[in-house]
Structures are given as structure tokens and as C-alpha cells.
Structure prediction request, 398 residues.
Amino acid sequence: MDLTFTEDEQAFRETVRRFLADELPQDLARKTEGGWHLEKEDVARWNRILHAKGWSAPAWPEEYGGTGWSPVQRYIFNEECADAWAPILSPFGLSMVGPVIYTFGSDEQKAKYLPPILSGETFWCQGYSEPGSGSDLASLKTRAVRDGGDYVVNGHKIWTTQAHWADMMFCLVRTDTEGKPQQGISFLLIDMTSPGIQVKPIITIDGSHSVNEVFFDDVRVPVENLIGQEGMGWTYAKFLLGHERTLIAGVSVSKKRIAQLKRIAGAERQNGASLLEDTSFRNRVAEAEISLQALEMTSLRSLASENAGKGPGPESSILKIRGSELQQTISGLLVEAVGYYAGPYELERFEDGWNEEPIGPDYAQGSMAMHLYGRASTIYGGSNEIQRNVIAKMILGL
Prediction:
């Protein structure tokens, strides 16, 4: 595998770097660096800036508004965005349902839904997990019964990230109760303003509101909002999850967090020396960095496969497992590095009218919130236990 970038690729890196230096709002970069949750308008603002440049969907085909970049260019773009602390755009439209729509959707669905996903005008959420049907997603019970030109949906979704922001939901529903559970699932696009939908917040351990419960009570969804064929939702869901799990690996962001960790550990003092000079702590940082380098090589192999025309396969489960575990390791080391200053975190500090002095150094702010929220990374996108089953079956043939 040749890891040397060509002159054209290096020139592309400089183009991206200049764009980020000129266009990335610094208030958004500070929030991202601090590990704080962004507000809806924060995400929408950065989406609008990227869309104006034509860069909001690097992985999409050009015919649907993508950049036409090679996988290597997309890799460079992600690296530079992470290095500049650029926010991550909401993935549900751009990285998840968008590819499903342009791959399996009708021409009418593509024309209706893809442009506002690109521009960030429409926010999406993912209706997969249910109480009792998370890792065992095939056991989902939310029903969609055909009634004339509509499906009538009843059920309950949970852990629905950004449902309180969303204009639309892509939702797995059961349209048939006969046969294998996977064969009776369909993929619907649901307007979140439809009568009968109720969104209830779930406050996570970091004190923030990003996930929700969503209840459906006789919600009518037009039949034309069905993606592909009825009963084929499991196929579309697996296609989507391959993209999601690769995304969760977050190699570029973890590389930036490792650099941040080393900088903080170099500044923190312990017994007259920097924390990074402590042998035990330094060894743990080095172990995390070595593991991240190994993960990056795996990610690059996946990139080479994509460059050869292959989409995300079961190897995305490897990226998801190691990526999410390393994110937790790095955030734990960050909390340990700042010590007791990680304890207080002020969710209100970015609100209008906040004029209090921060507690502790600036780099301590948000480290605990990021660490606590990150405990979920080994669960969402398919729990790591399930990913190991996927690897055993699909890669090792066990």
C-alpha cells in the first residue's frame, strides 16, 4: 500500500487548508475543540458555508451534488477538517439516508429529498432502535399497515438522536409479521410534523439533550414515501449501517484529540514535572497512539478497497469497534489529565448573557461532558458485542 500523497493531492490539501482558515467560524471551532454539543443553528451555519462551496457531501456522486473527489481526497478533507476543529455535520441526511435515497429511491424521491439534504435545509433523524429492539434490531415491532394510499404507523422508537431538530425521519417499520423477522421490515420516510408523532427528550449522563423517544399514534405516511420495495428495508438498513459504522471510527478526530491530550499533559504539572513525564501516564498515551496508528492503517485499507470500487463491507465493524473504544480511551485520559477541573462543566457558557469566569483552564472545559457522552459510542451504530458477531460470521466464517 503506497502511503505517499501525489503532488496534486498535496495541492488539494493546501486548498482545503486555506478554505478552512478563511471560512470556518472560530466560535464553532472553539466549541468543537472543547467537546461541547453544538446547537442546531451551529450545524446549519457550517452546512450552509460548505454547501456554498459545493463541499457539503464529499462522498456523493457528482450527478446528485457531490464533489467528485477520490477517496484519497475525501480522506485528506476529513483530516484537515479535524485538524482545524471543524464541526461534524449532522450525519443522518448526508451520510446515511442520502446514499440510501440516491441508490434505492425513485427519481421523484431523489428530486424531492436530496437538494435540501445537501443544503442543510432539512434535518433528518434515524428511527431504528426501539425498547427491546436495539442490538437485536430485527425484532422491531413498530407497525405500518397499508390503508389505501397511506401506511398507518404505530409504535415507539428510542435513543433517536436529533429527533427534536428533525424535519424528517427515515424509519424501519414492520409491514409483515410472517416468515423471518428481517423479511417483514420496510424503510419509510416520515415527516416529523405529521399528526400523531410525539417527541420526548432523554437527558443523557452529560446533562445534555441530544436523544429522544418518539411515539407514533396512527401516523399516516404516504405510500410514495416507501423506499424501494416493501419488505426490503433490512437490505437498505444494512447498506446504511455500513456507512454509519465507518463514520463512527472517527480516525481523523481521534488523531487531533491525541495531539490535544499530549499538549494538555505537557502543560499539567505533577511533583514539579509535566504529567507527560510521568512514565505510567506517558506509556498509556503511547499505547493509545500506537493503537490509533494501527486503526488508521485499517482505515486506509478500507479506503483502498473503496478506491477499487467496493463499498463498505463487514470490515466496517472492525473500524467501529476499535474506533469507538479508542475514543473512550482518549477521552478518559483527557479527563485524567485535567484532574479535578474536569468535574465542573458549565453547559450555559455559550448562552447569551454568560459572563462568569470559567472554572480551571480553558482546555478543561467540556472534557467531562465529552467523556460521559462518549460512553455511548460502543453502543450506538450497533453495539460492539454485535459487531464482533458480524466479524465472526461474515469475515471469519464461524
About this structure: The longest helix spans residues 279-307.
